[in-house]
Specification:
- The protein is α/β, with parallel strands linked by helices.
- The protein has three domains: 111 residues, no CATH class; 247 residues, 3-Layer(aba) Sandwich (Rossmann fold), CATH 3.40.50; 75 residues, Orthogonal Bundle (Arc Repressor Mutant, subunit A).
- The protein is built from 15 helices and 16 strands.
- Strands 7-6-8-9-5-10-11-12-13 form a nine-stranded mixed beta sheet.
- Helix 2 runs parallel beside helix 4, helix 3 runs antiparallel to helix 4 and helix 6 packs across helix 7.
- The longest helix is centred in the middle third of the chain and has 18 residues.
- The radius of gyration is 30 Å and the shape is elongated.
């Protein structure tokens, strides 16, 4: 199905129609609900249309209201032009026009009332009242606004999301969200990748969320039902949001819900996608969170990590970036932008296994906070010079030799050596294996007071009593 070629719409008369209508283009008006609307207003109406509503009955009703046939034809050409820009085909245009003509003949084609159209009058600042920010999560996620969560795949952003959803749906405080808890609220997830039964439900239960307050719609599920993709700026997504009435809408990842013709690097296109979504969020007073895959560029942080769309950063009131500390293996959650409050401290957590309803999953475990930001973690990783295996071997021996017992917990030794030398985990592992092979160090399991066992590294065979 090809894109609409409007030159075929009226054939040879197209140019004549344009010339005949142009003289009265701005002077002509149509009466709708007692208000006059100029051709300029119709042009502005079309510019505000999206692929989801450009061929609506309202669009044709406004076109059919012109005072003469030439101007009506000119409006239909304007409509066809806009439909073609938005990727609509000749077949789709003719099908919608035919339906509009039938409704018009039956007297059932209703012209939008004045309050349904764009008002071409500016509002006066003196006529509004000052309003405080309405927070869903105080100091982080405001209602009626878009926020962004960016991360590389596999870093643990979904586990942090589970903690967020648990906080929202239960109203309970935690290390992750120590702020004043909100009243238990509803969350709507548009999932483009994670299976609700296999991934989302077990993960949410492990985090302590009230799954009875969590709703979802998957990209593939919608496609199977409708035969087409669910897009962020579509009337279908707006309807799902309005019908669910959530307090937070999470779109994860947002890339799964973009129309195929959208170029994320084009600022105007991305702004056109997010504006309809923000309008719906403000209508129902919900917070929106777009989850974005970060790009694979090296040594970049902040807005440059958001995959191909810096406009997403600008359009968002809050931006959170998730990554992993190479040294400690902890996951960090850094608040990189906050338009309405001071930026929050960076959260640190580890990942532990969990079993829920017989299904294995994972859960985020709070470990504290830090003043380091995404840039600090990224640049620390990029700036360190290469360290040799011999340097790592020397550090292992030196650190063990400085302890009173000549031993150290295996994981703590690894962190200490990597922190001191800046070596990679692979270099550390090679150094440790060589020291073990020549008998310089010896790994052993040691019983703990709580009955568990941990691996320790012993230097020159020294022993220790725990």
């Amino acid at each position: 199905m090809g894109v609409l070629d409007v030159s075929m719409l009226y054939g040879r008369k197209r140019r004549e129609i344009r010339l005949g209508a142009s003289a009265g283009l701005l002077r002509n008006t149509m009466e709708t609900g007692g208000h006059a609307v100029t051709e300029e207003a119709y042009s502005m109406y079309l510019k505000a249309c999206t692929a989801a509503n450009v061929l609506s009955m309202d669009s044709f009703a406004l076109a059919f209201c012109a005072h003469n046939e030439a101007l009506q034809a000119a409006r239909e050409i304007m409509l066809a032009d806009r439909a073609g820009e938005l990727g609509k085909s000749m077949y789709e245009f003719n099908e919608a026009r035919g339906k509009a003509v039938e409704l018009r003949r039956a007297g059932r084609l209703k012209t939008p009332k004045a309050n349904q159209r764009v008002q071409l009058v500016a509002d006066n600042m003196g006529g509004i009242e000052t309003a405080a920010v309405d927070w869903l999560v105080p100091g982080l996620f405001p209602r009626g606004e878009l926020s962004v969560l960016g991360a590389d795949g596999g870093t643990g952003k979904g586990l942090w999301q589970a903690q967020l959803i648990a906080h929202i749906t239960t109203g309970k405080q935690s290390g992750f969200f120590p702020c004043e808890p909100p009243s238990p609220s509803r969350v709507l997830i548009f999932s483009g990748e994670d299976d609700p039964a296999k991934v989302l439900r077990p993960r949410l239960l492990a985090a302590g969320a009230d799954v009875g307050k969590v709703f979802f719609k998957t990209a593939d599920g919608f496609f199977n039902q409708s035969g087409h993709l669910l897009a962020i700026d579509s009337a279908e997504m707006a309807a799902i949001i309005r019908n669910t009435v959530p307090d937070m809408v999470i779109i994860d990842p947002y890339q799964s819900f973009l129309s195929m013709d959208i170029k994320m690097a084009e600022r105007n296109q991305m702004r056109g996608v997010t504006t309809p979504l923000r309008a719906v969020l403000r209508e129902i007073n919900a917070a929106g969170l777009l989850v974005a895959h970060s790009n694979k560029k090296g040594a970049v942080a902040g807005r440059q990590r958001l995959a191909d769309s810096s406009d997403l950063w600008d359009a968002s009131r809050c931006v959170v970036m998730v990554g992993r500390d190479r040294l400690t293996k902890q996951v960090y959650v850094s608040n990189e932008k906050n338009s309405y409050a001071p930026e929050c401290k960076t959260i640190l957590f580890t990942i532990e296994g969990a079993t829920v309803e017989g299904v294995k999953t994972a859960v985020a475990v709070y470990q504290g906070t830090t003043d380091k930001k995404d840039y600090d973690f990224i640049m620390d990783k990029a700036a360190r010079p290469a360290v040799s295996k011999d340097d790592a071997k020397e550090a292992i021996c030196a650190i063990l030799g400085e302890t009173q017992t000549g031993s150290m917990e295996s994981e703590k030794l690894r962190i200490a050596v990597m922190k001191e030398t800046g070596c990679s985990e692979r270099t550390y592992d090679r150094a440790r294996k060589e020291l073990k092979a020549d008998g310089t160090i010896c790994p052993k399991k040691v019983g703990q007071k709580d009955g568990t066992q941990k691996w320790y590294i012993f230097y020159h065979g020294l022993t220790v009593v725990i």
